[in-house]
């Protein structure tokens, strides 16, 4: 069974964040109704901040619709920094969302990105995925079955920490990789394409004119995963939803 493939263009970032937050609420509710819990992989970077803030804001009417106590929070990727570092994806989510909603601390599965050796952080995260999804009987053929993976896309076509020209883009056996990213002169820790592609739903959230050319290439151009790693994300049985603002969609032809 192939999932839905949806591209929604929202007028502006505010509308985009609202649509993304509504999608989050709907996916979490569906998962909790179906199997009593929801495993979400949060996206990093800056775009999700607006969405997370809406989810945390009691006045936005979304916070109370989420059964937070049944949500397990993971990250799609993490920078190789301590959790209190300004670049930490954990810190961004903790500040904008997790410090403001009642997700049980034991349900927050942070990447141990402070380990001097990124590889050992990746191995520890892999064990945590296997334990958590195994305990909830949500492993599918050796792959954790996320209910929702949130992703962003960089202007270079990367997603999570799957960067052009890095081996992680083609990782087919491991759950978590710790690629050296030359352009960043640093390691990253990232879920691999098979993990994202085992998810019930992957939702990309992208905004801004600086992504317009790349978005058109990713969605409408030739398949070239080395150049555009976001193209590796094709959930096998799950839904793939692109939520983009008008500026990012400016070069789409359909
Ligand atoms: C990260 C993210 C990364 C991000 C894109 C888009 O760790 O930076 O996982 O994949 O989603 O770079 O970032 P912006 O939302 O800041 O444009």
Task: Give a short synopsis of this structure.
With 254 residues, the chain is of the alpha/beta class. Helix content is 28%, strand content 20%. The two termini are 25 Å apart.
Explain how this protein is built.
With 254 residues, the protein is an alpha/beta fold. It has one domain (5-245): Rossmann fold, CATH 3.40.50. It has helices at 13-35, 48-56, 89-96, 118-135, 193-197, 212-220; strands at 5-10, 38-42, 71-75, 77-79, 139-140, 143-144, 148-151, 176-177, 180-181, 186-191, 201-206, 239-245. The protein has a 6-stranded parallel beta sheet, covered by helices on one side. Strands 4, 8, 9 and 10 form a 4-stranded antiparallel beta sheet that branches. It has a two-stranded antiparallel ribbon with strand order 5-6. β9 and β10 (186-191) form a beta hairpin. The mean pLDDT is 97. The site of 6-phosphogluconic acid has 15 residues, from loops. 6-phosphogluconic acid is lined by residues 43-47, 76-77, 89, 152-154, 158-161.
